[in-house]
Amino acid sequence: MPESKTIVERIEKMIRDVPDFPKKGILFKDITPVLNDAQLFKLAIEEMVMKYKTKGVQRVVGIESRGFIFGAPLALRLGAGFVPVRKKGKLPAKTRAVTYSLEYGEDTLEIHTDAIKKGEKVLLVDDLLATGGTAQAVCKLIEEMGGEIVGISFLIELMFLKGIEKLAGYDVSSIIHY
Ligand code: AMP
Fold first, then answer.
1. Is 96 a catalytic residue?
2. Cβ–Cβ < 8 Å for 26, 18
3. What percentage of the chain carries pLDDT values higher than 90?
4. What is the Å distance from ligand 1's center to 91 Cα?
């Protein structure tokens, strides 16, 4: 689809590489220039919508914080509810938590216990797939609650980190691949 390819190229050009952020050795993929361009932001969301619009998505789960930016408009376009997954201590009502390993140490994410009902079809959204540890942990949370994960959508995948291997068995898609 040549039109779609052009969109991908335009989005790719707008992603800004920031070396050594937030720490030395990390090449940070800054998506804020894409958000800043009204037309490109819309096109990026539409590309993500296209892949899951026939999947009967009932809940879109966005991972704090850039997953919220893409997850909320996706939920609106898919006619689904939006569910935030947040860092420990941020959600006000009763939560379920998952703790997972990072390169150094560990992190905990939380979801409201009443946010997903058994059997609901869930689309998980984040801006970027790196090692896959974050998305894998959130999949565990969703499935413990009885949610059925019908897809995992990222704007960007860093293919060389092979995060996709941690998400084997899921319908994973990304718009931009590095
Ligand atoms: P991971 O669990 O390794 O897949 O990391 C995914 C999370 O870390 C996502 O929420 C990303 O926003 C963030 N992240 C990891 N690496 C980068 C990077 N190079 N540039 C921007 N965000 C990143």
1. no
2. no
3. 95
4. 22
Q: Is 137 in the pocket of ligand 1 (CB under 6 A)?
A: no
* Cα dihedral 5→6→7→13 (10° resolution): 110
Q: How confident is the model at residue 53 (pLDDT cuts 50, 70, 90)?
A: very high
Hey, what domains does the chain have and what are their CATH numbers?
A: 54-177 (3.40.50.2020)
Give the confidence band of 3 by pLDDT, cuts at 50, 70, 90. Answer: low
Query: Taking CA 109 as the corner, what is the angle to CA 103 and CA 114, rounded to the nearest 5 degrees?
Result: 160
Residue-wise pLDDT tens digits, 123-152 = 999 999 999 999 999 999 999 999 999 999
Whether residue 26 has its Cβ less than 6 Å from ligand 1? yes
Q: Which atom of ligand 1 is nearest the CA belonging to 131?
A: 3
How many C-beta neighbours within 10 Å does residue 67 have? 26
**Section 37-64 average pLDDT:** 98
Which ligand 1 atom is nearest residue 137's CA? 2
